[in-house]
Amino acid sequence: xxxxxxxxxxxxxxxxxxxxxxxxxxxxxxxxxxxxxxxxxxxxxxxxxxxxxxxxxxxxxxxxxxxxxxxxxxxxxxxxxxxxxxxxxxxxxxxxxxxxxxxxxxxxxxxxxxxxxxxxxxxxxxxxxxxxxxxxxxxxxxxxxxxxxxxxxxxxxxxxxxxxxxxxxxxxxxxxxxxxxxxxxxxxxxxxxxxxxxxxxxxxxxxxxxxxxxxxxxxxxxxxxxxxxxxxxxxxxxxxxxxxxxxxxxxxxxxxxxxxxxxxxxxxxxxxxxxxxxxxxxxxxxxxxxxxxxxxxxxxxxxxxxxxxxxxxxxxxxxxxxxxxxxxxxxxxxxxxxxxxxxxxxxxxxxxxxxxxxxxxxxxxxxxxxxxxxxxxxxxxxxxxxxxxxxxxxxxxxxxxxxxxxxx
Length: 408
Prior knowledge:
Elements: E1 2-3, H1 41-51, H2 71-82, E2 87-91, E3 97-101, E4 107-109, H3 112-120, E5 127-130, H4 132-136, E6 151-152, E7 155-156, H5 158-164, E8 168-171, H6 176-184, E9 191-193, H7 202-212, H8 216-237, E10 247-251, H9 264-271, E11 275-276, E12 287-288, H10 290-296, E13 300-305, H11 320-330, H12 339-342, E14 346-350, H13 351-354, H14 359-370, H15 380-391, E15 405-406
Parallel strand pairs: 1-12, 4-5, 4-8, 8-9, 10-11, 10-13, 13-14
Antiparallel strand pairs: 2-3, 6-7, 14-15
Helix pairs in contact: 1-2, 7-8, 8-14, 8-15, 14-15
């Protein structure tokens, strides 16, 4: 549904509050007795304090999830720390409590984000089934090219999944209760809901996945990069007054489609210190009128695109598609008076950055575009290269290959 300028909801105060990027989180795995970001010796001390009556019990103190906190929970925590626990009980992103039989050796990744996350954790050898979306992304995710196809994320092939006999199925928070869990009910196959693309949930989800697949060190390495970018940006943007923050129009992978509050592009924009002008609109990805954009008069325009729409990303070295779309945006009727167009602050960006484990790259690029003077020394391409080379182990030279932003 198109939203006319005169009906648009102007940003409300809560949408203007810039969240801390590298804020702490609670790892929702039973055994995390002190409710912090990891399971370690401090949790053993916490459980002992609960047993001795010196500390109050916590939601996650019952490590073996048997209904009582006692010395057996201390033993279970020790096994989790050592990585040889026989069960792991957790609360996933869909707020479902489930107990997994460990170790997890066979995984069906029903989303391309979970496939990428498993490569980040160097656990691709555990993947026995992937989505159509992953197979279509064969240049970026070549490890899975010969992996069995289990259908689309919203149309999973349950029969195929059953024949693969996985220890675990991973899908989105919205998809797992709807498409996966009911159809696996009565089987021995558990499913876990992890989005693995939202900037706000990625830290806790990546660490949880690290425990699930026994790759906690690799999860920590990813979080170091995430927090490095987050802290660098937050340190300089958190003190910017609301009325001085850059006003941004985000356009999705279709003309005049935008992002509302809480969507992947919105989260990255907000975390980079920008104000998403469409944050308060209704719907998830509403289509707006061209006049609405002109009335909002953004200072920066970011157009996100997918390879299925415009040749871009890892599959091409030719930026002409990005260049043509940007020129089209600049030439839209009446847009020459928009501040972003007047100031030549219209940017093309690969869509997957804003909604994938690679979101720190988007945050870096957006921060650079929003506040070039503040981030004169920030090098988003170097961060992207580190994500590919150091985190994922990819042999891909960004100075020679790919089209991810335009202008370069």
